[in-house]
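Predict both folds.
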Amino acid sequence: MLSALLDLVLPVRCGGCDAPGTPWCRECARVLNDPPAQVHVRVDPGVPVWALGAYSGVRRNAVVAAKERGRRDLAAPLGLAAAVAVARLRRWGELPAGPLIVVPAPTRARAARARGGDPVTRMARCAASHDPTLHVHPMLVTGATVRDSVGLSASQRQDNLAGRISIRADSVPRSLPLLVIDDIVTTGATTREAVRVLRKGGFRTSGILVIARA
């Protein structure tokens, strides 16, 4: 009864295509199940970058809804897609088998508060719920002076982040391989700085996995 009343007030719609009656439809699940492909970004992070597809259509709608429209429930399908992608990359020999540290790309604290938490970390934890070998550690932190990157060029993004990502990893084992995960890669500036900081901290980064490449 309560669910039916809520549907009347706030009709449930698919986060990928806006179809009514379901938070995530089968067709959008099929699209999100595209295999990961290695992509080249303008700012090379020095490790492979894999994306599930272009930042358009279903992928764009889901990412925007999760980040900007309060659709926390979309962490579940996005996380499942990430877990399936990790399994495929392991099967292809691109990622090592066994325990893998998953590090969400850093998010500005103000943005995370406005969104009710970090959607990338939420997605990573949903991925780990499908694969017990994935251990999520949100250990990358952005400085207070980092600006929103929307509208910035590749060089401006690099300048914006240079020296402004730090690491909190006192209890994280440095012997395990590591995968950085994010929702979108644009120029690659964030991932490059993240990889640099992780390497400086003694971690071995195996690659970067994103839902979409802009």
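Second protein follows, with its predicted structure tokens after the sequence.
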Amino acid sequence: MFKNLLITSFLGLLAIVLGAFGTHSLKEILTTEQLMSFETAVRYQMYHVFVLLFVNIYEGFSEKQKNRISYVFFLGILLFSGSIYLIQLTSVSAKSIWFVTPLGGLFFIIGWFLLMMIFVKKMNKN
């Protein structure tokens, strides 16, 4: 659990640093469309940091469930937000890694589905 919270804390810190970097340093470099894309990556990363904090401190989940959900969301952040950062901050072409961002989005969807299924099972037990 603490490993997941450590990774989550790092991802939260990174989202704040990248958000500030985008706001203060990239306005002169990126187009408005590119900056909006970068901000989307930061926003989705931070949304999922909040979810990860909840998952890992909620006592209603088993350690196995916490780990499974955390790894799925970690992959979503890495692939979704990470690919957008890579595209906007380097010379990597979106055409060359077009499949990575949607794959990250799919991991976000899977993570939310896992959460929903756990809550449905808990609801049916009561």
